[in-house]
User: What shape does this take?
Amino acid sequence: MLWKNRTFLLLMTGEVIAGAGMWIFIIANLHFMQGLIPSDTLKALVLMCGLAASILLSPKAGVVIDTYDKRKVMIYSSWVRFLSPILMFPALAYDSLLWMIVALVVMQSSAAFYFPTIQSSLPAILSKDELLKANSAYLNISTLSRICGTAVGGILVVSVELFQLYLFSMVAYAALAIITFFVHIPNAPARNSKEKVEFREVLTISRKDPAVMVGLVNTGLITLFLGGVNLMILNFSEIQGEPQLMGWIFAAEGISILIGGILAKRWVGSRNLVAASTLMLFFFSVSQYGMSFVESRTMVLTSFAFFGFIVAFFFPVTTTIFQKRLAPNQQGRFFSFKSMLDRCFFLIALGITGVCLDLLGLAGYLLCVGTATLLAGILTLFYSRRHKLDVRADDDSPAAA
Assistant: This one.
């Protein structure tokens, strides 16, 4: 039933095309910065600029998604994203970091509207018992696009001019906008026309639901790690003296996500999603400790593969918790709120990772992160047991009021 849904199929097709374009864009940007900025801290500060813009836009984005036609929101945000690689042409012409920052701001501003719209649209186009499978499929599709994008980007970055990589991104973003014209997303139940749609309403809902709070804490912690992963991967390749290692790490992690995504629905099944998401923190800490063996290519690749395998379970599980606990006319604002939190964590992570890599080194930083993840897993485990939290993929948990 899932893959017979025309709108879901179109959304996933668009994700493959646009995701590949986005990762080509990211690799091109990293290569562009590598020639201009020697310091990891300064690289992090440049990347933080785009995230800061998307954080400021997230509250407005949530209200727009819950108020207006989701299809139109996706179309407009796709065309805005199309502008980001165009803005890199003057950056290349003048070796200008300022133009690159403008391009990043445009891309992240578009993402502040686009990605929460997709996540809030899935419950409207699918049945409740398909959500976990759909979220796993969405993660797999995103991973596949990343594998394709990083593989193609890694090959092209050493064989063609940078401006050609940005041309590939432009074509991908244009294709996404065209595909989005053909999707159909039912509108959420109408609210009273006199009732004001406010972003802060979702903050109250999140605080009142312990299951949502656990999901936010768990995802926030992993997002803090992921925010600095590109800088870490650059360091791995520099420490081992293998520029191609960056591509191997992305491939190992991505292939593991694809394998885990196939098994996620079968293994999680009707189990308690809150308990499952907390248990995965312990596995994440094991992978982070394994990554601390920074001079061993085998340990690094194995640890990233294990990390990717757990990611394939973790994010679909937590996303399903949110979708099942929230009412349809609140999900746009909630996923914009979560997107804002994610970007805040990315912003913090970029700063922390850049500074820690300069001060502690890669191995020391990974040991600290692994310990923090382990402690967080213990705390959230006790909290969820104390509140007897239980959300399952196949139940009819009442949405938050």
Observations:
- The two ends are 30 Å apart (CA to CA).
- The chain has a mean pLDDT of 81.
- Residues 6-34 form the longest helix (29 residues).
